[in-house]
Structures are given as structure tokens and as C-alpha cells.
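Incident log entry.

Two folding requests arrived from the same account within the same minute. Monitoring flagged them as a possible duplicate submission, but the sequences differ. Recording both here for audit purposes.

Request one:
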Amino acid sequence: MKVLSKAKLEEALNKLSEANEVFVPMQKKAQSGYFPWNSFVSGQDELMLEALNVYQSPKGAVLPQTEKMYRYQQGGMEINIEETFEDSHPTIIFGARACDVKGILAMDEVFLTRGYEDSFYKARRSGNTIIANACYEPGPNCFCNAMEVDCVNPAGADVILRDGGDAYVWEVKSEKGEAVTAVIAGLLEEKEVSLPQLKPFVQKVDYSGVAEKLKTMFEHPLWDKLSEPCVNCGMCTFVCPSCYCFDIQVKMWGDEGYRFRAWDSCMFEEYSREAGGGNPRGASKERFRQRFLHKLEFFTERYGTPLCTGCGRCMIVCPTDINIVRIIDAVKEAEVND
């Protein structure tokens, strides 16, 4: 089997960064997330490949938090698009966990299928390669196995890394994977290493039947109780690897300007506010319900898989201890009228 010695990891990242923007899990002061490897400052930043996960997922590599879309000139009633900013420069997400890869696959469904392709997302994704990091020891908040994610064999990865002690097994899964492997071929060696066994999940939850049951629960009083602690801060949506809500804004000076989009959140009151002032989800409960119905019912109905990937980040960052596992359990136990 091909392996990459951990002693050669930084050399491999440097080599890959020569022709690609390489995003790696990193601790930067109080922040942890996926940052470009060329921003790494030795002695100040910390590479987090050995950590189970970081707070910010790598979705920003394909759906940036703020993204310029196009520049235009206005003349009377005419508007001329002068330049679009579809960015297909080569990028590598290095070390993504299976839950985060599943989040990107979910966005692929939204932005690239069902008769419509988002050209900005498509451009970024076309230049993107995913080198995933297999998980063998789930954390206390992990439940990806319940949400149709195989943490040992991340679906959608171009290369899978497997921790073999002092080296990573390097397992190529696609043509893109072959291409990045060729770049660091001189650093790989043939060696047999033993791999760990998958340890049991601490967090237990049964998602089976939840999407179907939720179809009957839109007006269920359970939502009043579950939503009561929520302060609509939106932290859950910003750390989630599969949330993709965005807002489009314009910046103008005189007759010219540009449009850009930025992450938004269904938990914010203004997100669903209409131009005339109405709001179909003006109450906190309605926004809370929308988020969990989208994660657990609506996405499953449309795409055949839940939008939650079981990473557990939302449970970690929530200031009022809202827990999606407990919500799934409460739905399972709720009584509904036939």
C-alpha cells in the first residue's frame, strides 16, 4: 500500500500548494477551521489533522462566506454585465472528515442537479479535490453513522487518508485523486501498515422513520417546547457543514457596482422577510421548526438523504444546549393523530 510518512507531511503540503490552494484543518489563535496552508505561521498556528474535527467545516472552500458574483454598469434602463467572477482555480481540501465531505455532496445536490446549475458553485467545485481523513474513533458528539455517513470510507473523496501510526495510508479513489498523487509521488512509499479498528459510537440515535413521521407534525405542540430555549443566534448554521443559505447584496457607486452573496441563516428573522414587510416565519418557533424540518424531512424527501451529517458541531456551540439528537428522540417518541 502507498503511504505518506507523517514526517513528510509538511513537505507534501508545500508541494501540493505550488499549483493549488490547499485548505487544511488549523488552529489560528482562538479560531479553528480550514485555512489555506500558505497562511500557516510556524510557532503560532497549529495543524489539526490529528484532531477529530475543527469548529468551521471546509464548506467555505466551495461556497465562500462572501463571494463576489458580477460587476455591472447601469445606463438608464439598461444594465450591462461587464465581468463575472466564476472562480475555478485549483483547490484541495486536505484532511476533511466524512461528515464534512457529506456536507459538500449535499451542496452538490442543491447547486448542480434538478435542472439548474449554479455557475459560481460549479466553477469552484470543478477545480476542487477532496483528500479525506478516515475516522476510527468517534467523538462524544459524533453520530454520523445514524445519518448515512460511513466515517471509515468517506463517500465522494478523491483520496482517503488512513492513520497508520507514523504514516498515513494514501488510498486513491478518483482521477482527481490520481492527479494530486502524481504531484507528491516522490514522497510516497510502498509499505504495509496496520490500521486501527473502528471504535463504537458514544452518541446513539435512530433516524429511521423520522422524515416520514415529521410529515404529520408541522403543527405539533412539540415545536413550542423544543424551540423555547432557542435565541436564534444562528451559530448552528454557520458551523454546520451542510447549511447553504445565502443572501445577495449590491454595492454601488454612481452608475456602476457589483453584486455579491454571503452566508445567511434561516434562524434570522430578516432572512424570510418579504419586500412588502410580511414574513412567513416571523416567530422564533417557526424559524426553529424550519431548520429542523429542512435537516430531517424536506431534504430527505427531495434528495433521498438527510441534510444533517452527524458532525455534532451544532450541539457543541449552542449557547442554550439545543441538541439535535434529543430532537430526533423527541420526534420518535411524540404521539401523533392518525
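Request two (distinct sequence, not a duplicate):
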Amino acid sequence: MDTSIKGLNKWANRHTSYPIDIVRVVLGVFLVIKGISFITNNRDFEDLIAPVSNFLGGMFVFHYIAAAHIVGGTIIVFGLLTRWAIIAQLPILMGAILINFFGEMHVGNLIIATIALIVSVFFLFYGSGKHSADYYFKMEK
């Protein structure tokens, strides 16, 4: 089996379906909503990262998360450069899982972050699928 990106895209295009594309769109919308939530509830975010704020640049992390979620989520919804957008999300999602173990445990947040990470890793390998901007632009050539 060809393990290159081109090979993964060919496999994904042969095995694509609308439910998988709907999951990709839902993931993107979820990330956009989370990014907006970070901006509107920045005090909650500051409390959330308080246990590790000395290790991380607090305002840098805040702006990175908000921008990556909003821009990356929008890109994922349209299926444009999906793998790159997912790569930008992975450190955030892993941090969302780890923050539960360094600070106060929020089981609901842990479950949501874990599901988002699993779905993101799936789309990291699967790609954007046949019903996406990537596929459309590839076929235009």
C-alpha cells in the first residue's frame, strides 16, 4: 500500500461518503465555536490555564488557540488544506486533555477534548475527502 499523501488521498476518495464529510464539517464548526468561546470568555480561559501559565506565554497561547480554532475550523469546514489545519489543532487538543491532569479535573471537558483529538487524528490521515474544496481544486487542473 502506498503510504504517501497522494496514496492516502486516493484511498480516501475511493472510500468517501457524506456521513464522513458531515463529521468533518461538524468538527470544523465545533472548533470555530470553541475559538469564539475563548475570545468571549477570556477570564475563564485565564483561570483554566493558570496552573501552567508560568510555563507558557499566556497571551501568546490565548491568541494562538483563538486564531487556530477560528481559522482552522473554517478551513476544515470547507475541506481546504485540512491536514495542515488539523496539524495546527493537535497541540491545542493535546493541551486541552493534559490541562485536566495539571489543574482541576473537568470530566466533560476531558471527554470532549479526547473525542475532538480522535476525530482530528482520523482526518489527519483520511484527509478532506471527495466532497471538499481540496478535491474540487485538484479536479480543476
